Amino acid sequence: MKKKYHVYGIGAALVDTEIEVTDNDLQQLSIDKGLMTLVDEQRQSELMDHLSDHLTACRKAGGGSAANTIIAVSCFGGKTFYSCKVADDDNGRFYLDDLGNAGVDVHSNGELPSGITGKCLVLITPDAERSMNTYLGISETLSKTELNHDAIAQSEYLYIEGYLVTSETGRAAAILAREIAEQQGVKTALSLSDPGMVAFFRDGLQEMIGDQVDLLFCNSAEALGWTDSETVEEAAKRLQATARTFVITLGAEGALVYDGSALIRIPAHPVTAVDTNGAGDMFAGAFLYAVTQGHSHEVAGHLASMASASVVSQYGPRLDHQQYPHLLSTLDNRHAGRNG
Asked: Which CA distances in Å does 252 have to 220, 256, 267, 276, 305?
């Protein structure tokens, strides 16, 4: 039976503000470069005050790791659903409108609750690295209430954001969502999200993963940390106990994809990187779109590699709408050439 949705996602709802900074700015503000750091609203306000002279270069968009991935699936042409939590404020309404404009269905319990919608300050240094300071706001209370059991059952894949491990209620929601998916024969996918999540929330992530997920996304640092390995090749062997299939992204070196039987090296597409924010999210979105369209993991890896290369060559975690069909046509042409 054909499912209504290709991918159902669950994760934080964050309004991103991207600001260009220098390494000196990060040092002066005691910000850990390249990581996601949870902060309270006061700390985030202090950072904004310190960076007020940078705001002419800032950009605002709906974000959150899983949301970026789900939006990418939708923009490629997939049918998607997203569970998140926003407050009854300007950012909350902006966020829901943004998801709707991207063609993503969302869970609604009627009126929005009072509170503050989550915000993420994304600081981009000249080397294109992104350092995130996140105030979760009402997203921290994302819970089982925000799940839509029917929509999960009507999806080909459930996609879980690893960042949910930091919230007690969010972690419980992720675990329940996985259990529902497993009961309904829906494939499960999860992203480890950040080396800090692996280092400090290992037990919680293991609970979210359960015995084994169908598809795991991680970068090399996360893979090494999760498997306690010295090399990526060693990590790839050990990851097979965690996931039936997986992707290890390797930045400028491409990616490793395990399709359940073979390890496939996906080459990178050389570009001049200006902003790595959302690169992993885009990779996951393009990959999920391709596999839900019946493509092999290798073909999915090539599309995802091209898409993530495109997104790091510009600012923001999304592509322009005309770039999605262009990427698909490029991929179709290349594989048609191979088969011809």
From this structure: 12, 12, 9, 11, 10
Q: Please report whether residue 200 resides in a domain.
A: yes
Q: How many CA atoms lie within 13 A of 281 on its CB side?
A: 26
Distance CA 72, CA 292 (A): 13
Task: Pull the structure tokens for residue 305.
Answer: 């590699």
The CATH number linked to 310 is: 3.40.1190.20
Structurally, the chain folds into a number of domains equal to: 1
pLDDT, tens digit, for every residue of 266-299?
999 888 887 777 889 999 999 999 999 999 999 9
Domain of residue 140 covers: 5-335
pTM above the 0.85 mark? Answer: yes
Cα distance between residue 339 and residue 41, in whole Å = 55
For residues 272 and 315, is the Cβ–Cβ distance under 8 A?
Answer: no
Specify if 340 maps to a domain: no
- Reading the block at residue 309, the tokens are 């290369």
Query: Rounded to whole angstroms, how far apart are CA atoms 241 and 252?
Result: 27
